[in-house]
Amino acid sequence: MKYPVSVSSFLILPVLLIAASSLEAQAGDKVIPAQIGSAFSKAGIPVLRERSQSIDFSLPLLDGGALTLSSLKGKVVLLNFWATWCPPCRQEMPSMEALYRRFKDMGLAFLAVDIQESNRQVGGFMKDFGLTFPVALDASGSISNKYGIRGIPTTFVIDRDGGIIISAVGGRDWSNPAVVSAFEVLLQYGK
């Protein structure tokens, strides 16, 4: 009697199943948990379909020194690209400050990357608006180019493992109660 499948196929099948489950585990690492997606969706901020790895960079800080994005691994990061002359940027900054103050000691790091302006311009703006979150200076615009910034403000939310889960173009009210609740969910996840 002839069988349509050879005996060697039965030996290969377990190997293929193990390989497939390994691929699923790797792909699963890119999946954004449903509770996070749901929380941000309720806040009107859609999450990406899959996490994408953030691009590491180092930039000088307005207050001196430098910051490397990868040094923030283990924290949730709100990475915002902006400029002082941008009306939506100016409008959203006070709400960003409120979100920063609420969560800065709970694992949320902020980095506002100003694009192609001087220390004096940015420093004056921060002082006038009473903003205290960290600001990096992308004087050449090279980092904003690497991130593909086409309009400002553009904000990325990066999870504790360095994966981008949100990419939002345009100004937002970051102190809106639904947004605050979404960040509470995100900050509790994976602790």
- Can you count the helices? 6
Main β-sheet, spatial strand arrangement: 1-8-7-4-5-6
Provide the CATH topology. Answer: Glutaredoxin
Largest sheet: 6 strands, mixed
Percent strand equals: 15-25%
H-E string: HHEEEEHEHEHEEH
Question: What's the gist of this structure?
Answer:
The protein is built from 6 helices and 8 strands; from the N terminus they run H-H-E-E-E-E-H-E-H-E-H-E-E-H. With 191 residues, the chain is α/β, with parallel strands linked by helices.
Task: Please explain how this structure is put together.
- A 6-stranded mixed β-sheet has the order 1-8-7-4-5-6.
- By secondary structure, the chain is of the alpha/beta class.
- A hairpin with a 4-residue loop joins strand 7 and strand 8.
- Helices cover 40% and strands 20% of the residues.
- The protein has one domain: 3-Layer(aba) Sandwich (Glutaredoxin), CATH 3.40.30.
- It is built from 6 helices and 8 strands, in the order H-H-E-E-E-E-H-E-H-E-H-E-E-H.
Mind sketching the topology for me?
Blueprint lengths: L6 H22 L5 H9 L9 E2 L4 E3 L5 E3 L7 E7 L4 H17 L4 E8 L3 H11 L5 E4 L3 H5 L7 E5 L4 E7 L7 H12 L3
Parallel strand pairs: 4-5, 5-6
Antiparallel strand pairs: 1-8, 2-3, 4-7, 7-8
Helix pairs in contact: 2-6
